[in-house]
Task: structure prediction
Amino acid sequence: MNTEKYLVKEGQKVDLKDFSTKRDEKLKREVVERTLMPDNIRQMAELQEKLYAENTSSLLIVFQAMDAAGKDSSIKHVMKGFNPQGVKVASFKVPSSEENDHDYLWRIHKEVPRRGEIGIFNRSHYEDVIVSKVHNLIESSQLPPELQTEDIFKKRYRQIRDYERYLYENGTMVVKFYLHLSKEEQKERLLERIENPDKNWKFSAGDVREREYWDLYMNAYEAMLENTSTDVAPWYVLPADNKWFTRYLISEILLEKLKEMDPQFPEFPEEQRENMEKCRKLLEKED
Result:
């Protein structure tokens, strides 16, 4: 799988119309779900175990998308092979009053994975350059008036780049997925949430209202991708109209990143090996 074509290179001009929302590889679903995905999940689980044991680096996975793009199901299906002990999932919704009393990265940094862990952000700090931009939330924020300048989002892009480089330079690899869903497919999924009683709980009237701002959201996502995809924290634009294909792409890219990190089981110091040998002999003497 050539994952490079889904990568947004640093400084690249982005027009989302150039990116497909449908699967663009000739793969059979049954082959992916029965063979390729299980193999990727197995390999990722093995590498996660080494990452956890090594306890020096961490991996942060960021998901951003329009509603109903499949963020939750991707997390559920792709990460199911991971040991939950070494995985932390954080979902970012409307900020609380406490969170609004701090800078916008305050609530984010608290959820960054510890060394040896894999962290998953279901939405993220990018809400503050997407939703805030589309709905002009800066004006009603607690940011001092003199800082509410016309170039506020340009500054935030720079702050986010700096923040993600800071994470990288302190041992956290960052990989970001934008699930690229078509407006037509979103409509079908929202209708399914209405018509299927088992999915009623997922439905929100707000998701339908947000469709009125579709073009503004696309513009905001394009600016986000252009200004915050870097060599150390890249964005991948993944077609999201076919969930099984999206999940496979995610597993391919994550496997690449974990292999790039190349975690290893720590080697025991010689003095500890000697102690292990003593413990072995004690155990063997037991009845």
